[in-house]
Amino acid sequence: MNPVEAALVGGLLGALLASGLNILLAWGQRRQQREHDLEMSALTHRQQLQRVVLEDAARLRDARLARLREDAKELTRALFDLERLALLMQWGESADKDEMKRVELAARARFESARAGLTLDPDGGRLTAAFASLTREIDEYQSMLQSHRVLVEARVVQHVVEHADQLEAQRRKVIDDITAAIQETQALLASVSVPVEAPAMEAGPTPGGIDIRSERADSVETRRMLPTPEGDEAVAAQAP
Fold this sequence. Notes:
The longest helix is centred in the first third of the chain and has 88 residues, at 3-90. The protein has helices spanning 3-90, 97-120, 125-154, 157-192, 220-225, 229-238; strands spanning 196-197, 216-217. By secondary structure, it is mainly α. The protein contains 6 helices and 2 strands. The chain has one domain (3-238). Residues 202-215 and 219-240 have low confidence and may be disordered. It is rod-shaped. Helix 1 (3-90) runs antiparallel to helix 2, helix 1 (3-90) packs parallel to helix 3 (125-154) and helix 2 (97-120) runs antiparallel to helix 3. It has a two-stranded antiparallel ribbon with strand order 1-2.
């Protein structure tokens, strides 16, 4: 083989080797791209699935909050009725007996209106229990008032003074229990209205540039249903 042929053969082999290397590099790049595309597709799918789960959870939360808020309004009105009933009891013989009966029946009717929904709610039971406990305290207060009137009519001064202190303590307990029940209702609404958040996932942003770890579901309806001081004042204004 003369030098010219050797040079031609060497050039051909070099060209074939360079072409083969280029083919291998291109194949490797395509393989890396396919793997990257599959990874991004899997991340996108997980994000979309999680978003659907979050939206479903938010809808369920909003529906629960709407029901609970309506029942809480009725319960709060019933608590205001009981507060008014305690005041009417305190007025003694000058109190309008018909008004006392009307207020007592109104409180019971409002509670019964909310009772079924609160009973079915996972956390509503503690509100119905608080109302039941409060009615027992009011019954005790009414019984003590009647006993106090008997002592006053009998003019047993020492017993009247001692019983008056007990009566005042019971009255304060009734008022404190009403306040506590209202605060418990507000706390329950606030706990239910917390936005639904996604559990922590692997670090880093998703293909869409959204960090899944910080994603959360909320809605305009939820924000409208959040307990506000203005809403509580409106409920108070509607109480008789």
